[in-house]
Predict the structure.
Amino acid sequence: MKFQMDDVVPDKGKIFALYIFLIMALMVTKSAMAADAKSSVLPLLDEIQARSTQVQSFSCKFTQERHLALFSKPVIFHGLLFLIRPDHLRWEFTDPIPSVLIFSGDKGMRCNDNAPPVHFDLTSDPVMRLVAEQLWTWLDSNYGKLEQMYSVKQQGDSTLVITPKEQAMADFIATITISFSNESKQPELVEIAEPGGDLTRIHFHDYNLNVALTEKLFVECGIRD
């Protein structure tokens, strides 16, 4: 039985909702505290914030499992993530279906396999502007705004559970659970539960912190060897 990309992610809205929450999982290390630097009521957030202020860039690898009711086995993706704070990010699937999403300031692009890149400008693209606004809200540590949109709870010593308050987002995402490394406080495992029972599980590994990243990563979509 062959699968199509539309079977894995059935509509454009869900693609963007997942991108938001996948990116947010990595951004929570920057935004866990209030903008006025008040101490959090969650001990884990204090630890994460202390580490995050020391990290301005990183790269890592990830493996994503997409568990769908339609399939008996999960669909497995592999990819790479590159980030420079505050506004450069590259989320890249390397296989089985190569694709790239790039944010660079108020510009960006999307590529799918061998198709030509699709460029977008956040000042004129309302859909991608919504994605970026969610992303930058987390990046900018606007915790007052975050508290209005999301509920964040600590589970055990190294796990956060995030629940959207707004119905528009709750239609796509039930909860997102993030487990952090005890040593580095970087995300190791992210689980995104959807209201219909589907589940996305992402394992992050091979982190390189404060690494020098070439500008080409954020202006070129081409899949690299």
Notes: Residues 5-218 form a domain with the outer membrane lipoprotein receptor (LolB), chain A fold (CATH 2.50.20.10). The chain has one domain: 5-218. Residues 38 and 46 are 10 Å apart (CA to CA).
